[in-house]
């Protein structure tokens, strides 16, 4: 495929028009054979009066059909699970109405028509149904023509409440685990701040339940999750300075690291075990250093960068907790560096691009440790990039508008970031495997997102 | 057999790559058909494109220069203010991604010192701000560097360090909303608030 497109670009003059046409034919052939192996996007007639089609897919992801659920909450559970599987980007959800897909629901004496589903490219069937304990979900393997997994999930009593929706997202993630052996990241939330307003907000991974959190008289920015998923830290400014605040979502209580709001303390981040925080601390003589402080200790924070008047900020821990990636202006312009958590073994991570002014910031270490996502100036605007920690290869994910502040989802596959592509700054999510994008927030000014960890296993 | 196939396909790819020249750069190269008119037309087109680009760059430079002069004049006018508190509160401005002080800024700072020295109960709060370019977290640090630079100059010129507090709001509190040098030049600044009885 690569060779063909290369050849295609090369034949520019008219002499080669015929050869070009031939190449196009070959390409069409290859594309149609991909469609045969993958999932066709054209409509097929499944059964009498039932129309079915697949949502657009890249490279043939397995097709999943979610059977409709009887009962009052059925439609919304059906909608949420289908949307979660779609946003997860690993499977392709069959685009069929609840009414039409009802024909496939197994009933006594009439099992699932696996043969018809196989012809439609369906690989998995999800069958949710209401039970006394909550909902029971069976995952069918169409090729094996049998149930692969069944489990019953309790649900909170109040339909569509935030906790009820989170529980349904948990079911989606379990279905993802059954299909692919790793959980999805539907049962997560994203913290962000609203520039200008100085407010902190939280939103579910599917864009539902946007609500303000940790309200106060202060101007807040840069929220960052505790690994327990119920607390977070942030930077707050009031009157004379900036201080690190921490908020507990269960108790609703906010604490500040120091009673005095003086000083310049910003961009906090927890270590993966939650035992220490790193943040940036401005010094009176100018310059900003990264410091680390033990949680629950009264000992003063320990400085781990040697600023010498330069700006060092935005720390993010490696998943093993041993290293920190951060932004520093020590070379005269902002670049990314890594260091041990005691400040030793400093290494420059990003290299200068000759011919343009380098400008890199907002690093976030991926959950599997293999990559760091960051923002890099490309031409006039910032774009979202990743750098591979092993071979230093980089990849660019955005090109439209100004794109900043990437934060990894716990699935290591999605990034949330802020973008001005719609005209105003909003949060967007990108699937790093396919580049597929979706808008998360509908709140102008949303930025500096932090994607929560998965809930702790019970 | 398989190895030979791999080698063969490499040869084919290399041959195709060698036959293929990279796409022509813009503006297009002169047409090599010996036609003088088209060569001339081509160089005229290139000359025009170049001069349009240069004119645009020059225009942007002039616009930036005139905005810079406007900020300098604003700072110089502030020095001549008859209201001393207005001099004390007057804003100073910075260049893009820089924290060093211009001559106009230094003149304005120099005018603030005797006013503060005549009022020993006053101290001053300096808040550094930035334009909206750069990452917002970096800009908090840059704003502090600006405020610290102002403080250092004031201390070096006779003001007690204990009477100066510094803070940064980065790009969070723009003086002028919007994008473009017009807004940016007014947002790269340090603001001064007198504090009483400290």
State the main characteristics.
heterodimer, A: about 450 residues, alpha+beta, 4-stranded antiparallel beta sheet, 31 strands, about 15% helix, elongated, B: about 200 residues, 4-stranded mixed beta sheet
Description:
The complex is a heterodimer of chains A (458) and B (198). By secondary structure, chain A is an alpha+beta fold. Helix content of chain A is 16%, strand content 39%. In chain A, a hairpin with a 5-residue loop joins strand 27 and strand 28. Residues 1-58 of chain A have low confidence and may be disordered. Chain B starts with a helix and ends with a strand. The radius of gyration of chain B is 28 Å and the shape is elongated. Chain B has 198 residues and is α+β, with helices and mostly antiparallel strands. In chain B, 29% of the residues are buried. At the A-B interface, helix 1, strand 11 and strand 19 of A face helix 1, helix 5 and strand 3 of B.
The tally of beta strands of chain B, per DSSP, is 4
Mean pLDDT of chain B: 84
Number of strands of chain A: 31
Number of continuous helical runs of chain B: 6
Oligomer type:
heterodimer
- The coarse overall form of chain B would be elongated
Give the mean pLDDT of chain A. Answer: 86
Q: Biggest interface in this structure?
A: A-B, 46 and 29 residues
Relative helix content of chain B: 55-70%
Strand order of the largest sheet of chain A: 1-2-4-3-5-6-7
H/E element order of chain B: HHHEHEHEHE
- The proportion of residues in beta strands of chain A is 35-45%
Please work out how many helical segments of chain A DSSP would assign. 6
The radius of gyration computed from the alpha-carbon positions of chain B, rounded to a whole number of angstroms, is 28 Å
Strand order of the largest sheet of chain B: 1-4-2-3
End-to-end gap of chain B: 88 Å
Q: What structural category do the secondary elements of chain B indicate? A: alpha+beta
Fraction of residues in helix of chain A: 10-25%
């Amino acid at each position: 495929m690569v060779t063909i497109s290369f050849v295609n670009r090369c034949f520019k003059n008219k002499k080669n028009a015929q050869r070009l046409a031939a190449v196009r034919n070959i390409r069409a052939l290859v594309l149609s054979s991909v469609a045969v192996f993958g999932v066709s996007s054209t409509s097929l007639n499944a059964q009498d009066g039932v129309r079915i089609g697949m949502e657009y897919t890249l490279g043939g992801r397995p097709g999943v059909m979610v059977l409709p659920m009887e009962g009052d909450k059925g439609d919304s559970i059906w909608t949420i699970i289908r949307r979660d599987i779609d946003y997860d980007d690993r499977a392709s959800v069959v685009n069929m109405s609840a009414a039409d897909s009802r024909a496939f629901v197994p009933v006594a004496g009439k099992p699932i028509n696996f043969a018809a589903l196989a012809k439609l490219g369906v690989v998995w069937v999800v069958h949710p149904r209401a039970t006394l304990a909550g909902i029971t979900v069976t995952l069918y393997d169409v090729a094996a023509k049998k149930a692969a997994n069944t489990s019953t999930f309790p649900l909170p009593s109040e339909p569509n409440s935030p906790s009820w929706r989170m529980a349904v997202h948990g079911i989606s993630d379990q279905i993802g685990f059954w299909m692919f052996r790793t959980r999805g990241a539907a049962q997560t939330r994203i913290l962000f701040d609203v520039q200008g307003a100085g407010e902190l907000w939280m939103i579910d991974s599917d864009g539902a339940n946007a609500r303000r959190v940790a309200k106060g008289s202060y101007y807040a920015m840069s929220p960052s999750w505790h690994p327990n998923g119920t607390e977070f830290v942030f930077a707050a400014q009031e009157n004379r300075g900036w201080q690190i605040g921490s908020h507990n979502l269960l108790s609703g209580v906010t604490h500040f690291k120091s009673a005095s709001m003086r000083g310049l303390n910003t961009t906090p981040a927890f270590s993966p075990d939650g035992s220490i925080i790193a943040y940036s601390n401005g010094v009176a003589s100018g310059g900003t250093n990264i410091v680390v402080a033990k949680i629950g200790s009264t000992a003063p924070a320990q400085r781990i960068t040697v600023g010498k008047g330069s700006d060092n900020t935005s720390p993010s821990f490696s998943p093993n907790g041993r290293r920190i990636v951060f932004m520093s202006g020590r070379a005269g312009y902002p670049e990314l560096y890594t260091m041990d958590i005691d400040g030793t073994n400093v290494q420059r991570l990003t290299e200068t691009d000759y011919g343009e002014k380098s400008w890199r910031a907002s690093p976030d270490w991926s959950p599997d440790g293999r990559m760091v996502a960051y923002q890099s100036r490309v031409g006039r605007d910032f774009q979202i990039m990743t750098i591979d920690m092993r071979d230093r290869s980089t990849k660019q994910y955005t090109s439209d508008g100004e794109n900043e502040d990437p934060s990894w989802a716990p699935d290591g596959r999605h990034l949330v970031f802020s973008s001005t592509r719609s005209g105003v700054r909003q949060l967007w999510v990108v699937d790093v495997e396919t580049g597929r994008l979706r808008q998360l927030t509908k709140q102008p000014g949303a930025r500096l997102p932090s994607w929560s960890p998965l809930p702790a296993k019970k | 057999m398989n190895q030979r196939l791999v080698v063969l396909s490499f040869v084919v790819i290399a041959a195709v790559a060698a036959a293929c020249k990279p796409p022509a750069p813009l503006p297009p190269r002169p047409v090599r058909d010996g036609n003088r008119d088209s060569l001339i037309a081509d160089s005229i087109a290139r000359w025009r494109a170049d001069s349009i680009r240069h004119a645009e760059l020059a225009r942007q430079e002039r616009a930036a220069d005139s905005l810079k002069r406007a900020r300098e004049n604003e700072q110089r006018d502030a020095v001549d203010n008859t209201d001393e508190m207005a001099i004390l509160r007057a804003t100073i401005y910075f260049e893009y991604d820089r924290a060093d002080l211009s001559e106009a800024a230094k003149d304005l700072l120099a005018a603030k010192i005797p006013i503060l020295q005549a009022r020993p109960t006053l101290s001053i709060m300096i808040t550094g701000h930035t334009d909206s370019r750069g990452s917002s977290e970096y800009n908090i640090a840059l704003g502090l560097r600006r405020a610290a630079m102002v403080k250092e100059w004031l201390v070096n010129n006779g003001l007690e360090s204990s009477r100066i507090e510094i803070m940064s709001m980065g790009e969070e509190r723009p003086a002028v909303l919007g994008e473009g040098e017009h807004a940016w030049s007014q947002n790269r600044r340090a603001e001064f608030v007198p504090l009483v009885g400290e």
